[in-house]
Amino acid sequence: MSMAAESCALVVLVLVIVVLPMVFAIVAIARGAALRRHVDELERDWKRGATRLSEFSDRLKRLEAGRPPEVPSPSPIPSPPAIAPAPASPPPPPRAEPVAIRPEVREVLFPVPPPTGLLPANAPVAKKPKERVSVENMIGERILPRVGVVALVLGLGLLVWYSYAELGPAGRLTLTSTIGAAMTVGGVFLRRRVPLKLLGGCLIGGGWAVMYITAYASHFIPASRVVASPLAGFLILLGVSGAALVHALKYRNETIAGLAYLLTIVTLFLSPEPGPAAWLAMSLSGAVLVTLAWRERWIRLCAFGAALLYITEGIWLANTPPGDLIPAFAVLVALWIMWILPDYFHRPATAETKGVHGALVAINFAGLLVVGGLIQAWFGVRSMGAIWMTLGALYAVHAIVGCKFAWRPAHLGALAFAAALAGLGSHQQFQGTGPVLAWTGISTALFAWGLWRKDRFPRLMGIVAVVVTVSRFWTLDRNLDYAFIPAILLAALLYAFSAAVARIRRGAPEVDFESSLVDLLAHLGALALALVIWHYPSELTVAILFAVTGLLLLELGPRLGASALVPEAACFLTVALFFVASVNLSATGEVYGVSRRLASTVPVLLAWLYAGEAFPMADPNAKQFRAFFAVLLFAGLLSLLRFELGAPAAPVAWAVATGAWVLWSRLARRDLEFILAGAGAAATVLVYSATSTLRVPALGWEGPVGSGALILVIFVAAHLATRRGVPAGLPSWARDLFAAAMSVTGFVLLAREMSGTWLTGSWAILGFALAGYGFIVRDRISRWSSLLVLGVCLGKVAIFDLATFDMPVKIATLVTLGGVMLAMSFVYARHHRRILGYFAGKE
Prior knowledge:
Blueprint: H1 3-65, H2 103-109, H3 135-162, H4 169-190, H5 197-220, H6 230-249, H7 254-269, H8 276-295, H9 299-317, H10 325-340, H11 342-345, H12 351-379, H13 384-405, H14 408-429, H15 434-453, H16 456-477, H17 484-505, H18 513-535, H19 539-560, H20 565-582, E1 590-591, E2 594-595, H21 596-614, H22 622-645, H23 650-668, H24 671-690, E3 695-696, E4 701-702, H25 704-721, H26 732-753, H27 756-777, H28 780-804, H29 807-830, H30 832-838
Antiparallel strand pairs: 1-2, 3-4
Helix pairs in contact: 1-3, 1-5, 1-7, 3-5, 4-5, 5-6, 6-7, 7-9, 8-9, 8-10, 9-10, 9-12, 10-12, 12-14, 13-14, 14-15, 14-16, 15-16, 15-17, 16-17, 16-18, 17-18, 19-20, 19-21, 20-21, 20-22, 21-22, 22-23, 22-24, 23-24, 23-25, 24-26, 25-26, 26-27, 26-28, 27-28, 27-29, 28-29
């Protein structure tokens, strides 16, 4: 044997000799310490009981010693017989008098338990005093057995090392196996005596460790190999580990059995190659664990073994030839079936066992998923999608069967795992829109199962599944052919889920988490529907579809009692504004002889008009929404007129629209439209002042005179129409806007048409006319406007006219302007009281 081989064998031997004995020693120590604590606790309980019994006996003797002695009553003197009288009705039995018991006797004979309800829940509980153990006893009873077993195992290892040169392989193995068996048998006999249980457990663990090392060395260490067949060596090692496990089960301790079972798992790791013997050993190991979980309620050992066996299966896959792939799948399914069996017979009662059982459920799914993923990655199975769906179908069968018979969390986990595996399989198996349609069907099936079983958790799973499906669709599948079909289906499904949950929770006494999802699902459905409208139709129809959808939601919300649909309708109608402004108003061309701009914008304006008029007043924000849509309608109309007729015709068109809004407000007696008309008048004046080329549509008049005169006439008519009979709700400042717009329009008209001294004179005449109009109609804004116009005239004369005009023109300008101002001043001064009385009424 080469030096390298000897070194490797030495390292392996030392590791096995040191590590495994320490594991078994720790197991035996833990077992012995637990038994010792249990015995000590029983002794303390017996002492306390004996003490209380002695106290009770002493107290009873003291009470009996203080009681006066009983005096026997004298026997009655017999009387002579007498003649019995006639039988009469028997007298009533005498009433028994209550027997008085002294308090001190009552306390002894009938002790009253201390009250428990008066103590707070977090009241501190007095801890039992720990028994003090002397250092000598601790060293002798607890430390010496541990150190002794470790020293003994190490000594045996050195003995084997020393005997390499003296004994052959068979002699070495015979020596170590005999010593291991002797240690085990001696430990069994020592455990029969209570004081020596700890020492006996340590010897048992060390003995089995030595025998396992011996079985390992019989084939896997070349220096002591006596078994040449890998299969025979594996079976010998498996037999020793199985015997250790059987012996450990005798003590009915889950920890000891788990460490013994660890030997079996290590043996499975050492399998030369996956084959029938290894598969049978793995199946038997799993069956043993399931049996222990059933008979002994050792669910922790079952979860621990499930994880180790799945790891073993994954390691075996690296050495599995492609021809044995079907048996490997069969072993995988067999393991999965074994680990779902505890769901049917184990009912955890404590929080700890519930957590361990839940971990077993998760380990079973994770192991199935990881091993299946390794098979797909290493072997490249083409039909892996169908295999995943088959595994999902198995989980679905488990969920259906376990609906009544399995542990409920395991049943719910099976539902979730079935959906996950079916979704994974459909993603790999189908093409195009097939995966998203399959995911939609899975979501619907989960929700329908929850409806049928009246179970909210499957319904919540269905809701989560459909949200995940929507996310997946808009991330991966939105550009596929015919993708609009699942897109519309998903949006409708979200609305259907919301309606179903609302119907189920209607009349519920309290609001739970599921009830809070009603509005959220409806909003998600609205978002999905908005994405459909935005992504698939042509650009010019997007705004129309948003508006029409908003109207449908606005009508369906109050009728179906779905309050969430009303704000969604408002959102859809508002989003239509974005597409109108960015797409529809800039559209060109015609369709069927009608401008594409008109054809795509007018329906949206009509939708805003209907929304402003028909918005349900039951909504707390109804007034705000109605005002908002009224503003959208007026602004949209002015924008459409500007883009459709062009900038030169916009001022006149806006003035006509403003006049129409004034007429609407007068007929409907509504103040909002009148306010909008005032704002429109101000906007009209600004556009008229800023537009260089002006034109009157339909009439063809060019220039500022025709447009300005028509605008001025409309403003004067609107101002006069609201002079009398104005509803009390109409704000006065909106009417003042018309007066100011009228004054500014006349001022700008004269400024654009005239120049020089003619402009100054025209402004002076305009100021005089505004003053007269203000006096006649009792309008303060018109009179103030006249004063402002005259002030502008005076400034123009002082700054420009006197510096540039000839002397005759200067004289004429100053005389005209001064005469107008003096005339107005004379009127204010001469008729002061009459003017005050004239304006004492309404202005």
